[in-house]
DNA sequence: TATCCACCGGAAGATATGGGTC
DNA sequence: GACCCATATCTTCCGGTGGATA
């Protein structure tokens, strides 16, 4: 862009950069940050450390199950202990590794095993490459002066060559597991061989383990928990993290007893504890005197209402800071926290609704239309009727009512609608539902989807149903 | 008290897709 | 190219369900 008549050329970002920044280090307020100190979680951290210390003695630690609601510091504490464990293992030269898997993303047996197999294959290849470098250097030296092999594991140059060939063959044999296509037992044996390639204790951290069990049953946990009896060189231990206290009810009793050898519960934080946590992070995240006195108590109070969710509290504080910075305010004030609360709520709707499959969006649109037409206690039959009309109008496939009830249940689980099964006696049994998200904003997100663009034109046809 | 409604929701299987192996 | 495997999505079938009503 060219600015006229000799004005000083102010770039797009110059204005934004000209104000005093409020943040010193915003990253410490993000969920991905693992803090060095976790206030009010000493007991749980010490308990984990007491259990895992046996890994540093080369023994197999007991499997651990960690429970607690969202934002109670489970993952952060477990990651903190893992980092400490790995750094201590390096200090004392004990082979001990922790592998983190988020089961919300990696939610099938195949994917979990494939991810683990590929991680260990990569590690083994690095180890082999280092050893090869070392042996090749030694070989070069031995060609000039064969006495360098004296007092080593190799008596002759041929022995050394054999070892190099062996390692090269090992590296070649290690084949990465593809995203799909292999039978699961082949993926399992590939992982088994990769992890057992050399002596080590491995802690497999399965975050949101309940999602894995919900989606693909307990086969993965069964296979992992019985591996130790077959491994020669290595040992594995499982650390499961779950939001759901009852997920073990669905497990095979053998898996249940093996997995829950040790259980650690993370209770929700109260408002005072949240205030401590926020203060702790705010000291690092913000410039001095960048917050008014009421900002942290308000963030803590909002988050305490959300079942003591520290992640929410930190999110709120970060967003309030960003909003203050955007409005070029010098300090973060109470109004920014309130604006942040609204923004987070709206962002959540957009984030959940936008990626929905088209069919779910049509079902949701049917619920919105009913709600906008003043229908209270919307039931499955009504939703299905409107849904069919909408599909016809926009030329989409019409799914069966059975499938639509599943889509409604999914919307319920996502917190977009609130559905309850009610019996109306002679008038049958159905699900009654209402929207749990703002109508206008949700409708706008749905209409922004090009595949649903025509749905706006279909509304008069649906309206006619209410007029008749 | 038996009947009935309008679904719910589990189970099994079909189909499609994306990948691999031989 | 035929076949195998994992996964996602969807259909079909069918046994509940529970409170109003006859």
Would you mind describing this structure in some detail?
By secondary structure, the chain is of the alpha/beta class. The chain folds into 3 domains: 42-266, 3-Layer(aba) Sandwich (Rossmann fold); 270-352, Orthogonal Bundle (Helicase, Ruva Protein, domain 3); 354-467, Orthogonal Bundle (Arc Repressor Mutant, subunit A). It has 18 helices and 8 strands. It has a 5-stranded parallel beta sheet with strand order 2-3-4-1-5, with helices on both faces. Strands 6-8-7 form a 3-stranded antiparallel beta sheet. Strand 7 and strand 8 form a beta hairpin. It is globular. The two termini are 57 Å apart. Mean pLDDT is 87; it is low at 1-7. The structure holds a DNA duplex (22 and 22 nucleotides). Residues 364-446 form the Cdc6 C-terminal domain. It comes from Halorubrum aidingense JCM 13560.
Tally of distinct domains: 3
CATH architecture of the largest domain: 3-Layer(aba) Sandwich
Secondary-structure element order, N to C: HHEHEHHHEHHEHEHHHHHEHHEEHH
Specify the structural class: alpha/beta
